[in-house]
């Protein structure tokens, strides 16, 4: 048996245990419901064309515009229908449009003559999407890397706390233990966001938000590799943090730097998303690249080579953090008395087995 | 398997923690087919020694060999280990985690499952196999721990305080299982501070104090080496006169009953004659010193 086989066994156990964990299952279900609700509900709620009450002689242009027309004998009946909430709007002589609290744009449009519109940049984004999509990317990376990162740390602490780690370390290389946890965490995190993405895409198609899909495609395509490598970077820090303590209660003391390393880039991307220079910088900084670079791609701001360069930089950083995290993990893993300092762990000679 | 080279050997092992030298030049053998008891006070270095054998701690100097070859991770994978601080996964079923540990030691899934069933049966946990570990009593968790250490049919067994926390029934089960393994040719090294258990169980004895091996070898040999011949004498009247008898050291005097050691080279017959000359002798017999005595003698 070699390290690869041991890694596979460790990862398989982690995944098996997680898939039985009710908290995990419910949180996944919850995310899926949110994704479904966020994509399916808005088009449904906005409803179909307005219903409009009007006298027969004025109904022609409204019918032609595809509105649902209810004919009424006179203007007074039309107004009453609006007040009784039987219709969305009424057109009375003038012509004037009546509605309760919201101007019925489609009714107004049907009665107006509009100039022809020619879009010079047809790919430019709907402002709502331009606001939501960046937030969505940043949020997914933030939440997922936090949740699954914490779980890696918890699993490490559980093995220290129950002391089973000594049996494990005697049986398999310590790096296989770490690798197994990282692989399992990455697969579970990726699995969860892929599920959420599938539900979101299906929801968009179903809920008629399909126009956004072709625009999102490349951004999502790049988001996946950035997400995976970025997750490894964060998970390596969580692993090191977990190895330093012996009890789940103590995790707060070591997790703050890790949380900040994820939280600060998250807010930076959210607040600076309209500042081109800042975003350019953020899209290369390894901690914010997983959200900032897909975002610039989505906005069409990045040159073709840029995501490649940022990804290479992220890969190198993740690799360095993985090596450093593994060293701290090995050095601290068997110190089961109290909290270990990073310095002590780093200098430990216990890299045997 | 039972060759003369089937020996786990520690040779000049040193280990320090900061300024404190925990092990100094530790050398001893654990021989195949024999139960070796490892005794010493708290902090004497037992656990450190065992961790070095298992490779979870590194030695500063010296080496550990099995059948003449230095230990590698691959060799150690065939060792069985029960650490002093017990632990398995609380939220996993007993069967599942014993199988998992078997697989980590290189067994196929089928072999690990077979071995787990047999072991759980052997330690009396067959019916609890599907239960989560945390739902078991402490005694039963210990039995599960034994199963976890044995599932891969280890070539060498290293057990740190295997009997602590066990109820008497479980002690018997564990003793039985360990004896079977030893009889099958596995060297078994176990530490304990319960000297009576060690006395009952071990063939060889290693005594450590302050990180130094004070004595190691066959138990009876050590008994002869480190204790002087001891006798019990029961007479009719006060036995206090023994105090003045040449070569006699009184260990215990209770009126007519006395326990005494004889200096090496002193014959016990003159003492008996002296007693008979003073009156009737109700009893006169050799006393086998307990391990506690050897331990006291050696560890001080």
Automatic annotation (TrEMBL), chain A:
Q: Which organism is it from?
A: Micromonospora musae
Pfam families xref list: ABC2_membrane_3 (PF12698)
Which portions of this protein are annotated as coiled-coil regions?
Answer: none
Indicate yes or no for the key word Nucleus: no
Return the protein name: ABC transporter permease
Which keywords appear in this protein's UniProt record, sorted alphabetically? Membrane, Transmembrane, Transmembrane helix
Sorted alphabetically, the Gene Ontology cellular component annotations on this record are:
membrane
- Name where it's found: Membrane
Membrane topology term reads:
Multi-pass membrane protein
Instruction: Specify the ABC-2 type transporter transmembrane domain's residue ranges.
Output: 133-326
For this UniProt entry, what is the primary localization, expressed as one broad class? membrane
Residues annotated as transmembrane: 23-45, 128-153, 183-207, 219-239, 251-272, 308-329
Which GO MF terms are attached to this record?
A: ABC-type transporter activity
Q: Which InterPro entries does the UniProt entry name for this protein?
A: ABC2_TM
